[in-house]
Amino acid sequence: MWSIPHQVRIFLAREPVDMRKSFHGLIALAESVLEQDPLSGHLFVFINRRRDRLKVLYWGGVGYCIWYQQLEEGSYQLPDVQAADDEAGLEITAGQLSLILEGIDLSSVRHRKRFQVSDRHRDTPSSRRS
Fold it and tell me: Which domain of life is it from (predicted)?
């Protein structure tokens, strides 16, 4: 796949999408269903009902781009969702997207504890030094 900068967010549509949709259809879904700005530079992931096709829509700086993958065998496994039933999408990490694309069982993956910078840590006096 490609390297995704840490500031880029990834939004996964929970409901299956008709893979005949192209740029304008996926842009409309990013705006109306995922309630995100498709010009943000973030990635918007859509999967079909059989879960054997996946499209990623993103703004490439000068135009929209679609990355499309069709599996020859098997299906994508989506992460178990703890989101509210009324949420049409969820935010996933670049690591989770990689696991989905590689066909790794997300329920068997164990995450070790790691330090993550929170907003609280970013606003400390020591982080404001020049």
Answer: Bacteria
Q: What are the residue ranges spanned by the domains of the chain?
A: 10-128
Q: Are 56 and 17 in contact (CB under 8 A)?
A: no
Q: Which of 33, 51, 49 is nearest to 100 (CA)?
A: 51
Query: What whole-number distance in Å separates Cα of residue 102 and Cα of residue 88?
Result: 24
Q: Tell me the Ramachandran region of residue 46: left when phi exceeds 0, alpha when psi lies from -120 to 50, beta otherwise.
A: beta
Task: Write out the two tokens for 91.
Answer: 């935010």
Q: Considering the chain, what is the average pLDDT of its residues? A: 86
Please say whether the beta carbons of 53 and 93 come within 8 A: no
DSSP 3-state of 25:
helix
Q: Nearest-CA neighbor of 95 among 110, 81, 83?
A: 110
Q: What is the pLDDT of residues 32-50, one digit of tens each?
A: 999 999 999 999 999 999 9
